[in-house]
Model the fold of this input.
Amino acid sequence: DAGVIQSPRHEVTEMGQEVTLRCKPISGHDYLFWYRQTMMRGLELLIYFNNNVPIDDSGMPEDRFSAKMPNASFSTLKIQPSEPRDSAVYFCASSPLYGAGFSGNTIYFGEGSWLTVV
Amino acid sequence: DQQVKQNSPSLSVQEGRISILNCDYTNSMFDYFLWYKKYPAEGPTFLISISSIKDKNEDGRFTVFLNKSAKHLSLHIVPSQPGDSAVYFCAASARGSGGYQKVTFGTGTKLQVIP
Done:
């Protein structure tokens, strides 16, 4: 069974350019998450969706960041314009369960997208 | 405001010895605590968890201890093996608005097990 698939795996872009990261969650998972990993802050939750609807975007750092989930099998995280401080690893994750009964062991992460903004 | 803190960015341990990874938290509303393991160029994977109503959970070589009064948890790996070398993230879960859980991760501790 395929896991969470992210693309691109690596991206190097110039400051000011638009960056689009893509994610295909595990089929049947109703929850999709976007995380950012940095040395200083660890794994930060940026936004998550339930049944394609954004539930909590309080972790999105600025208006330059936006995320969409047009259908159950695809999501994008867009940064426009990108800045050097956006350089990080961005993880997409999905889960079949996040409400009652959730104990944290059902979040499945993709391999991440390494973003470098120069 | 870092609600989940891992104050040791790295740890080196000899193969066969015990590895102890520590984590502190500030939010008393957390009801589950978790450890995730991450190898280079891979996403984090779930390792072990503990409910806030327990003080210990064991799974093979891995044991998690929870001290609620101190708001502290630790992961013990005995015996440590070279394949355990990875970054370990501590995480905690609490009920958020609308009934959804919110998982907060720490900054990670890089464990190196020396053969």
Summary: Chain A touches chain B at residues 4, 35, 39-45, 50, 55-56, 91, 93, 98-100, 102-112 (CB under 8 Å).
